[in-house]
Each structure stands twice: as structure tokens, then as C-alpha cells.
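Kindly review both lines to help learners:
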Amino acid sequence: MAYYAVALWKQSKIRPKGIQVQVVQPRIRNGLTIVDYQEPELEQWLGVLLRGGERALLQVMTKKPELRVGHYCWWCKARDSCPEYAKTRKNSAAEDFA
């Protein structure tokens, strides 16, 4: 949500003091999430997003990217061919059977 708020904040012709972002999830009860971002938070998120983008570009451009296993691997389409994920799963299985 912060990404969309920062994008709107940066692209606006006027500089708003804050942005309100709403997400509607109709399949769940009380499925409305509202977050207000004020200018200091937007500036902070802009820095976080820019640093993350720089790191991502460096990883894409290197011949040997840094691979880290985490909870986010669940959604990764490349996890079945990821050597770091395979190593972690193998170590976990070895611990289970030790």
C-alpha cells in the first residue's frame, strides 16, 4: 500500500500533505483496510523503496545473485529450481530423520 501511496504522492502535480489508501477485500468480513500516510512517512517509504529497487537491480545484473530463503519463498515461481531453497529443505529433512 505504501508503494501506491508514494507513487501517487510523487506523480501528483500538487504536493499533498498526506495520502489515504484503501483496500477492499470483499470475501472476508470487515474486508476494508484504510491506511493514512502523512508526508514524513511518505518520504521515509520513498527512501526504503528506492534502496530496495537499487538492491534488486544489482542482484539482477550480477552473475551470482545472493539467494536467501524465507517465508516469501512460498510465492516464488522459481523455488523448485532454487539451489538455496533445495539446500534448506534437504537440511530440514535431515534434521527430521536424525
Observations:
- Strands lie at 18-24, 32-38.
- The longest strand covers residues 18-24.
- The radius of gyration is 19 Å.
- The mean pLDDT is 91.
